[in-house]
## 1
Amino acid sequence: MTLPSSPPALHFEGVSKTYPGQPAPALSDLTLTVARGSRTGIIGRSGAGKSTLVRLISGLETPDAGRLLVQGQDVTRLGRAEQRQRQARTGLVFQHFNLLAQRTVLGNVTLPLELAGQPRAQREQRALELLEQVGLADFARRYPAQLSGGQKQRVGIARALVTGPDLLLADEATSALDPETSAGILDLLTRLQRERDLTLLIVTHQLEVVRAATTHVAVLDRGRLVEQGPTRHLLAQPQHEVTRALLDAHRPEVTLGAGEVLRHVNLDDLGAQTLAALARLGARLVQAEAHPQGVDAWLVVREDAGDLSALRPSAEVWTPAPVSA
Ligand SMILES: Nc1ncnc2c1ncn2[C@@H]1O[C@H](COP(=O)(O)OP(=O)(O)OP(=O)(O)O)[C@@H](O)[C@H]1O
Ligand SMILES: [Mg+2]
């Protein structure tokens, strides 16, 4: 007997969207599948269409053309009641938290349940469980103004999850936070995604976010999907100039000698074996950054150093374009 295969979390099929009065489409003939249980990053420059994609999923906008299937259901054809049901199964986390200043932390987290008509005792119990999970059990009676940015975002995450969604959309959720706080929020999102078996969609313009928290990436440029794939593969061998430009921003400042080139490699680790292999190649390690996908390393090697894939059987290497003088 074969089990029916479960549909992907999201499937965009030729989706286009132009805002009224705008000359160019915000999204253009977008076809993209997001696997259930993945942590998918959506990256691209400002105005690429990332937030529009999120607004289509959350039902705040409707496509002009094409189909959008959420868990196999064509959401362009839902009635009002079904739309509301679907929205309860989609959690949203915003860049500026969007908390209500006159409500306590608890009051902010219970709000979606209040709107759904759940009795007070029940919704408060549920909200307290969520606050516990985001590490804010002791903050329930505070007001947003009495919280740090990171704490506000934790409240935002608790609120997004209080209705028990299976899909969590985070639009620039860490862009307003300092790097350390941002890393804490990404850890929390990753942990919750695993524990609750969520599909997590992370919209960002920061490469660090993609590295730290995603399994897959889709790159948008001017409303079009220009590249997609597993994060590790895509960051090691970016094909499109938008992706390359994002990675290039992390290129270390080095002075190259005659016949030397700068190359980017994704390594498994920086263990003794790897270091020995680097030495054999005569490679100078000029920058290394560990992340859940491995180690992003920038090497200076001789142009004729040969095959860097010896560094690791599956090593993926990218030689950036030469720096123009
Ligand atoms: N409500 C709106 N009305 C008219 N045009 C809009 C509206 N929202 C977005 N746009 C336009 O649609 C395009 C895509 O915008 P979108 O907000 O999706 O980009 P983005 O990738 O999220 O950018 P950013 O990184 O700056 O947040 C832009 O050209 C933008 O000006
Ligand atoms: Mg945006």
## 2
Amino acid sequence: MEFGDFKATEAFNPTYQRIKELALEPHIVDLDSYGFTVIPPEKVAPLDFLERIRETVLRIAAERTGIELSLDENGSAGEYQGQPQTDGQFLLYYLLMADPIFEEWVTNPTLATVATYLMHGQQQLSSLTSFIKWKGGTYGDNLGLHSDSPPDRDGRLPPCSDVANAAYCLTDYTEENGAIAMVPGSHRYCRTPNPGEGVKNAVPVEAKAGSLIAWHGNMWHGAYPKQTDGLRMNVTSYMCHKRLKTQESYQWQVTQEMLDRNTPEFARLVGADDHMGWDEKGPDFSRMLRYPSPEMKKRMAEAAAAHAKPAKVE
Ligand SMILES: O=C(O)CCC(=O)C(=O)O
Ligand SMILES: [Fe+2]
């Protein structure tokens, strides 16, 4: 029998096809089984894209810190006031608004397919940041283990992925140079770790520059201390369900120019179809209709057809 075209799973079928076209099947098995995966550079983006985005992040870092950073030297936050202020690390925020190359990144087919799979197509971009680390960067003795999904007041998490995260590695990740730490299978615990819990079972996620490390929002993760000289850099693409608040503000900030040069998928990713958060003018429901998903288009066509039927004469 043929898989991939079931009537009952119409909305999911294109994602299934995409997973196969991009040869992502083993990574989907990793994600389901262990909660994380490492997708090698050749399945993510061409080398010249990696070089361009790394240069762009370094340029933005220089603009914000006032310091020219170099990959094989240790860094400094300089005059950059980004929070939190910790030794050996800073985060560059709001990258989507800083250069059009990040629009290219958030619409990358591999990233989009993995996020769509994990989030059942309901993702929006919550934040796009770069973690920049150098020697001494550490989350302390406990690797800073945490889950990215927002827990309830008792620290419990839903079994489905409310959040998905992915680090595009701009430099090699090894245990010595401060790789992400993951506790395999912890996406199934459906709760956040207690202080110190999980450290013994954590593994370093080693990956070549250009790899994409993706994980389920429930995963217990942190990072190993950075012991080597030089920078460890990434672009962290954090997605959340459309019903959640985003970390960074895109919905009312993305420009029409950004929307016009991108696909409807991009518009939905940045909440351009979301009317919530209105002012004295009230909700603008037309936002929903401007960038409809294929499922929404189908529902609208069905509703229009039902409406057009002649009224039944009793
Ligand atoms: O790479 C790190 O330092 C940890 C990253 C992390 O916790 C995250 O991106 O959610
Ligand atoms: Fe995290």
